[in-house]
């Protein structure tokens, strides 16, 4: 037993990727177990590992944690990435929830039927450009600080960085109207723990491909 | 300015109801503004009140808070309904996230088009009886205490009571196989602030009526 958190999920981004980002940003090393077959997943359920029969699962500090948000709140709290008081936490929570709604669209995109893909891509571009990115551009412009909340690195910065890169993979010019976000992206890329995570060989997972989609459908088939 | 939190939403449950429950359980009085037309909603957006152009909106302690989970975490933290430490919070968060998933099914059932209702109902009841309720029945059985976490009232207890009552509206005997949830329901319903909220005349909202669904959809789409 290494004492490191252990992550159980598919070998791909999905709902586990934000957790990988946050642990990495906090400088926490972790182990991973990859689900490859339905049998493996069914066994996890049968053995009582998954509170609601779902992954992500993160074994950390003696707990078998499930539910992405619960896991991330715990990690953020433990590693001081959750602001200094209740009001800063409220801001971080609001920002993270908004970004999470945008990331949900990206998460679901590979599973859209072929004839809906173009429309869904347009929706992602529209939401990023008109609903979400303007908010963070304005936050950064108004306080002029490097980080979104309380002049200190937090969960919100990590999540926004992840979202920017994820949207750019689909819409390469998405930051063209957002000079503050461009600067933010550069600054975050240079935070040592994030810089390390962005290098080849890190636990960061590649964008979902056809094989990933196939594995998801196979493992979670009813 | 009364100093009370002010809630802006439809005159109905939707995504605001868990927030009403939590404030009521905490004994906090609140005001409500009801959205009735698209124009009202568009004006809120234009005036910059809605961070991500969405409701619920809760004006509280000088903040214009949006995003249901953010709002509820703040209220729970402020009014001591979030456990005593990080690990109790982790448990509460896990339970509550499962409840949010179930709430999504229960809350959206009334909005399903006719051709999808039966399948939605079957899935909703299956998840209630086979995925979610067994977990909380077991939690109560394993520790034998009155509350889900840490032997004191938390947001998890409030949220569980809310979804139990919502599930019973769709299937009255849904607790038949869950004796501990039955006694949990009776016990939590008797907590004075919650008992008050369950009485007629409180700010608790009724189930959406089928004939009101088109009006709601028109406000947002």
Automatic annotation (TrEMBL), chain A:
SUPFAM superfamilies: GST C-terminal domain-like, Thioredoxin-like. It comes from the Eukaryota. Coiled coil: none annotated. One of its GO terms (biological process) is glutathione metabolic process. Residues 85-209 form the GST C-terminal domain. GO terms for molecular function: glutathione transferase activity. Belongs to the GST superfamily. Alpha family. This is glutathione transferase. The lineage of its organism: Eukaryota, Metazoa, Chordata, Craniata, Vertebrata.
UniProtKB/TrEMBL annotation, chain B:
Pfam families: GST_C_3, GST_N. GO terms for biological process: glutathione metabolic process; xenobiotic metabolic process. Residues 3-83 form the GST N-terminal domain. It is an enzyme of class 2 (transferase). The keyword Metal-binding does not apply. Its EC number is 2.5.1.18. InterPro entries: Glutathione-S-Trfase_C-like, Glutathione-S-Trfase_C_sf, Glutathione_S-Trfase, Glutathione_S-Trfase_N, GST_alpha, GST_C, GST_superfamily, Thioredoxin-like_sf. This is glutathione transferase. Belongs to the GST superfamily. Alpha family. Residues 85-207 form the GST C-terminal domain. One of its GO terms (molecular function) is glutathione transferase activity. The keyword Transcription regulation does not apply.
């Amino acid at each position: 037993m290494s004492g490191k958190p252990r992550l159980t999920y598919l070998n791909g981004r999905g709902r586990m990727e934000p957790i990988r980002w946050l642990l990495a940003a906090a400088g926490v090393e972790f182990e991973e177990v990859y689900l490859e077959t339905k049998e493996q997943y069914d066994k996890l359920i049968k053995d009582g590992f998954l509170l609601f029969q779902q992954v992500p699962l993160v074994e950390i500090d003696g707990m078998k944690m499930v539910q992405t948000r619960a896991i991330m709140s715990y990690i953020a709290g433990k590693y001081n990435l959750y602001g200094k008081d209740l009001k800063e936490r409220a801001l971080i929570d609001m920002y993270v929830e908004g970004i999470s709604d945008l990331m949900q669209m990206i998460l679901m995109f590979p599973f859209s039927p072929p004839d809906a893909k173009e429309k869904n891509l347009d929706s992602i571009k529209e939401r990023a450009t008109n609903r979400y990115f303007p908010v963070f551009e304005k936050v950064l412009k108004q306080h002029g600080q490097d980080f979104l909340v309380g002049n200190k690195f937090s969960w919100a910065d990590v999540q926004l960085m992840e979202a920017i890169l994820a949207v750019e993979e689909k819409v390469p010019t998405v930051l063209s109207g957002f000079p503050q976000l461009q600067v933010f992206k550069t600054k975050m890329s240079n935070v040592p723990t994030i810089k390390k995570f962005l290098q080849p060989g890190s636990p960061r997972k590649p964008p979902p491909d056809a094989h990933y989609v196939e594995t998801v459908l196979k493992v979670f088939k009813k």
